[in-house]
Design goal:
heterodimer; A: mainly alpha; 8 helices; B: alpha/beta; four-stranded mixed beta sheet; two-stranded parallel ribbon; 5 helices; rod-shaped
């Protein structure tokens, strides 16, 4: 038998869990820029917050891939300027044991363009 | 979501601090407390027991005390960079208050935020940042806007004349017999 009488006399705020305030605070912090009730109401906003967290987790794995594609675009543009194919350039660098990743190569192409030119000249000479 | 909502910034530290003489980045602390309420007991104990030792050890930090009736105790720390941080000392004991003060004393005046990049340079480029005219013919610098030759169509494919000229040149390099009959009037 469960005795509920005494518990029924207690005020509502003592029956809810102590972390209620903090859960709602967390939801409001994360959903501060949402539209409408998703910003203010816990039950609606928490679903949106959890979905965005899920999206972030999934995107973490894809972030490096996306950045690599961006770097390859930049390397491709720099290679074409020096009359070279991007794929040929990258595979040749790997063959000659010049282990620069795409991020470094695109940074060189932007900030140290003569170094990048010398890399393309190197590949042309050695091929 | 959090990336947009929670603030983030690039690295901006007082990196040169400590290269010469170390300068304490905490400018002043302002302790607002109640003289009678139970929530400020720890703060009052701190002021009685630990505060004067702190002020003697840190003469460069200005301490303001604000007794305000029926308010919760708060510690506001102002840094040399202009950043202010407020810490709630509600129901904290005197050791906790001392820990907070000690933490703020050692901090640089930079707000704790997500760093977008964990490096920074004032000189990102030694050779000069790439621009579209870097590897182009410098003839363009002195060309006239009305120069028609710059508007000529450049074909990616070789014309028949060009192919024949190239064949002739290669043949002459190889030392073959050249038949000049059909090439009169063409520049070789």
């Amino acid at each position: 038998m469960v005795f509920l009488t005494v518990a029924r006399w207690m005020p509502q705020r003592f029956k809810t869990s102590p972390s209620r305030f903090f859960k709602r605070m967390q939801m409001k912090r994360n959903a501060a820029k949402y539209f409408g009730r998703g910003r203010n109401c816990y039950v609606i906003g928490v679903l949106r917050m959890l979905r965005s967290m899920r999206h972030s987790t999934e995107q973490q794995a894809r972030k490096s891939e996306m950045l690599d594609r961006l770097y390859e675009t930049r390397i491709s543009a720099a290679c074409l300027e020096h009359g070279m194919d991007k794929r040929y350039f990258l595979t040749s660098l790997g063959e000659f044991d010049i282990n620069l990743n795409r991020e470094s190569l695109s940074n060189l192409a932007i900030y140290e363009p003569r170094t990048f030119q010398s890399l393309t000249e190197f590949v042309k000479m050695r091929s | 979501m959090s990336g947009q909502t929670l603030p983030s910034h690039f690295v901006k530290n007082v990196i040169q601090n400590g290269v010469g003489r170390h300068v304490c980045q905490l400018q002043r602390i302002t302790i607002s407390f109640c003289k009678s309420h139970a929530a400020s007991v720890g703060v009052r104990d701190f002021i009685e027991n630990y505060l004067l030792d702190f002020t003697k050890a840190n003469p460069g930090v200005v301490v303001y005390l604000k007794p305000r009736r029926n308010r919760k105790p708060v510690l506001a720390a102002d840094f040399l960079s202009g950043y202010t941080e407020e810490v709630s000392l509600n129901k904290c004991d005197k050791d906790t208050v001392a820990q907070w003060v000690g933490l703020l004393r050692g901090r640089s005046g930079v707000q704790i935020q997500r760093l977008r990049k964990d490096w920074h340079t004032d000189t990102p480029s030694i050779q000069g940042i790439w621009h579209p005219f870097m590897f182009k013919d410098t003839r363009l610098n002195t060309s006239d806007l009305r120069d028609r030759s710059l508007s000529e169509y450049v074909s990616p494919y070789k014309s028949a004349t060009q192919k024949l000229v190239e064949q002739h040149r290669q043949a002459s390099e190889r030392g073959d017999q050249i038949d000049n009959k059909n090439l009169e009037g063409t520049e070789v």
